[in-house]
Design a protein that fits this description.
Elements (H helix, E strand, L loop, with lengths): L2 H30 L6 H16 L1 H13 L1
Helix pairs in contact: 1-2
């Protein structure tokens, strides 16, 4: 794997994690009433954000590993 490919994958993994954290934060803000959206939006954002933070990096890494072999 080239250094450019490794850097791109590193950036993608960190972007996925950061967007997941942002989704959780937005979900909490919606539930607390800071953002004027229905509460259901907050209750949907939080689990999707947590999934994106904790599971998507493993899924992406497994996908990249299977493609390079």
């Amino acid at each position: 794997m080239s250094e450019d490919t490794a850097m791109q994958r590193f950036i993608v993994l960190n972007t996925v994690r950061l967007t997941g954290v942002a989704m959780v934060l937005i979900g909490v803000l919606v539930i607390e009433g800071v953002v004027d959206l229905p509460d259901i939006v907050g209750y949907v954002f939080i689990p999707f954000g947590l999934f994106e933070v904790f599971f998507m990096p493993f899924i992406l890494a497994r996908h990249w590993k299977s493609r390079s072999e």
